[in-house]
Every structure is written in structure tokens, then in C-alpha cells.
Amino acid sequence: MGWMNTVSIVASLTVACVVLLVLRNRQDKARKHAAAASEEGKAAGLPITATYRAKPLLSPWELKVFGPLRASLPAGWYLCPQVRAADIVSISAPSSGHQRAALGKLAPRSVDFVLIDEGAIPRLVIELDDSSHDRPERQQRDADIDRALHAAGVPVRRIRPGQEIEWEAIVALVADGTQSVQSAKPSRAFRAEA
């Protein structure tokens, strides 16, 4: 009976060792595969678990406004959608801490449209303000952007849904630089429907 116990124990240990070796081999392969995938993802600068797909750059309302606005531009002017506010202005501050703080207010925010002239100078920012702009925190963000753009000499025109807009008049006022865009009166108006 002692001999049978020994054989049984040795057989059990052998099976256990084989199972452990198989499991370890699988884990090593999985680790190598994960490391290779991680290196590929790191090389591409992408998180491994993310899925990326192209999406429309403009909302339906922005797309609706884009065509008539683009058609109203003078020759050599361009319409740039979805521009980071920090890319429109240059920030100078007394210290790097102040500059970082000022940049921090603008960097994560974008504006709907920027009209630039033939020298790529921002001449007008257009913001389409739907009901999300009625929230207090959003109004604060809008005020931060407006202050920075005003300080840089870039006028901002905010448009509400349903507001009638004469794009040619607004662009003409900005192009000649003599009047505020707020004074443009609609004539052949475009209705800014959201």
C-alpha cells in the first residue's frame, strides 16, 4: 500500500506540474501579446481600449449656418470652424504663473467660427448660442472668452436660434473696420434656426 501511495502522490504532483506549466505558458503568451499591443498603441499614441471613428466637425445648426456665412465672405477671407480660443489670441502676462492661468481659461474652449482675412488675421468670432449657453457656468465661460477676444481686438457676434442675420452686412462692417458688428441691421436676413 505504501508503494501505491507514493506512485499516486508522484502522479498527482506530475499532473499538477504539467497543469501549472501549461497555465504559465498561456499567461506568458498573453503577457507578450498584451505588451506587443501596448507598444503598438503607445507608438500610435492611442489608448489600447479606445475605439476611434470620424465624426462630423459641425453640429446640424452649425452646418446650416456655415454655407450662408461662407458665401458672404469677401475674396481672400476664410471661415474656420471649431477653433480653440487660445489659438486666436496671444497671451502676455507678468509671470509664467499668470500666463498659465490665463491660458487655462481659454485652452479647453473653442469658438464656433472665426472669420480670417487674407493675412490669416482673426477679424470676427461667431458663436451660436443655443439653450446650453443659458446655464450659469456656461455664461461664465462665454464671458471669459468674450473678455479675452475683446482685449485682443477681435469682435464676437453671438447668435441665438431664430435670430435673423444679414451675414453680408456683418461681414462688411468688420471688413471696413469702422463699425461694431452689433450695429448690423438685417435686410435680406438668414434665420438662424437651431
User: From the coordinates shown, what is the CATH architecture of the largest domain?
Assistant: 3-Layer(aba) Sandwich
Outline the low-pLDDT stretches: 178-191
| CATH topology title of the largest domain | Trna Endonuclease, Chain: A, domain 1
CATH first level of the largest domain: which class?
Answer: Alpha Beta
Q: What is the number of strand segments? A: 6
Overall mean pLDDT stands at 80
Shape: elongated
- Count of helix runs: 5
Global Rg: 30 Å
Write the H/E string, N to C: HHEHEEHEEHE
Largest β-sheet summary: 4 strands, mixed
Alpha carbon gap, first and last residue: 89 Å
Helix content: 40-55%
User: In percent, how much strand structure appears in the residues?
Assistant: 15-25%
Strand order of the largest sheet: 1-2-3-4
Number of domains: 2
Identify the quaternary structure here: single chain
Tell me the structural class.
alpha+beta
What would you say this structure looks like, in words?
The chain is an alpha+beta fold. The chain folds into 2 domains: 1-52; 60-192, Trna Endonuclease, Chain: A, domain 1, CATH 3.40.1350. The protein has 5 helices and 6 strands. It has helices at 2-44, 60-71, 96-106, 136-151, 167-176, and strands at 78-84, 110-116, 122-128, 156-159, 163-165, 190-192. The strands form 2 sheets. It has a 4-stranded mixed sheet. Strands 5-6 form a two-stranded antiparallel ribbon. Strand 3 (122-128), helix 4 and strand 4 (156-159) form a beta-alpha-beta unit. The N and C termini lie far apart (89 Å).
Question: What labels would you give this structure?
Answer:
5 helices, Trna Endonuclease, Chain: A, domain 1, four-stranded mixed β-sheet, two-stranded antiparallel ribbon, 194 residues
